[in-house]
Amino acid sequence: MRSSFRALLGGLVALLPVLAVPLGAPVAQAGEDSDRSIIGGGPVTAERYPWTVAVASQSRFGSARSGQFCGGVLVGPTTVVSAAHCFGQAALGGNWSDVHDLRIIFGRTDLSGTSGRETDVSNVWVNPGYDPVTNSGDVAVVTLGESLPAASTIRMAGADDTQDYRAGTAAEVYGWGDTTGYASYSTVLRAAGLTVLADETCERAYPGNGDGKYNRQDMVCAGDPAGGHDACQGDSGGPLVAGGKLVGLVSWGAGCADPAHPGVYTRMSAVAGLVAAHSS
Ligand code: ARG
């Protein structure tokens, strides 16, 4: 994972978006209107979207927001999918297995409270094919130490679900991440409506010039062509949903909510087989 810097409009300096940890310098973003959430969108409840879970460690990230540092998605009673980059050295400052209080938080809309449940983690499979330079293969499978309700899971898109990936499809992204692009992490779960964008849009935005390289094989491009709605730091690993299925995981992007730089998501249909092979 890189941590080099790049100058953006207005002389702002943006932390490269591949940074997983929601700490440090602010990221630049387009637009300046209020009511940003994830970025754009608004608050929702974890009861309504119970498959959206938080990945947390209070020892690493503090107790104020229950230690949340990434998102995850419940796809089986003991299986959460998230991003590979959430579990690497750059995010955790060490190996995930050295983080003694790694938890999955389920059913907690407001991270400043104690509602819902916290489960411990018995294993994390971090895709060994994850490439921190291009950001390809950004998926991890977290096995829980106890079962969560099967009724709270969401189905992953598979190879047959090509219609959910068509450009123009409405999608929604969920998370507790940065709401402004300036490191204001949300305490409550938020969602924003996005549009699945053509692969060409992200291929043009991310040709491999230092931001990561868009690969249509295992990534999906989504955003707001007008800017203003996007995932941002701290949302990584969380769900992008279309047609009632999990179609993507928040992975990377340059800045947040910049119409010229859409969000890039791990393409669920491309990694569903890997996830199944590493699920309990
Ligand atoms: N890498 C970020 C994280 O770890 C997610 C960035 C997503 N950025 C975007 N503009 N959609 O939380």
Number of strands: 15
Amino- and carboxy-terminal Cα gap? 28 Å
How many structural domains? 1
Q: Whole-number average pLDDT?
A: 88
Q: Which cofactors or ions or other ligands sit in this model? A: arginine
CATH homologous superfamily identity: Trypsin-like serine proteases
Provide the low-confidence segments as ranges: 1-36
What is the CATH C level class, in words?
Answer: Mainly Beta
Radius of gyration: 17 Å
Largest sheet: 6 strands, antiparallel, barrel
Features:
binds arginine; 4 helices; 280 residues; Thrombin, subunit H; mainly beta; globular
Q: How does this structure look, described?
A:
It is built from four helices and 15 strands. The chain has 280 residues and is mainly β. The protein has one domain: Thrombin, subunit H, CATH 2.40.10.10. A six-stranded antiparallel barrel has the order 10-11-12-15-14-13. The protein has a six-stranded antiparallel barrel with strand order 4-5-6-9-8-7. Strands 1-2 form a two-stranded antiparallel ribbon. The protein is globular and about 40 Å long. The relative contact order is 0.22. The structure holds arginine. Arginine (ARG) binds at residues 17-18, 20, 177, 230-236, 250, 252-253, 256, 263.
Summarize the structure.
By secondary structure, the protein is mainly beta. The protein is 9% helix and 29% strand. The chain has helices at residues 58-61, 89-92, 199-205, 268-277, and strands at 5-7, 13-15, 42-43, 52-56, 68-76, 79-82, 103-106, 117-126, 140-144, 170-175, 190-196, 219-223, 239-242, 245-252, 263-267.
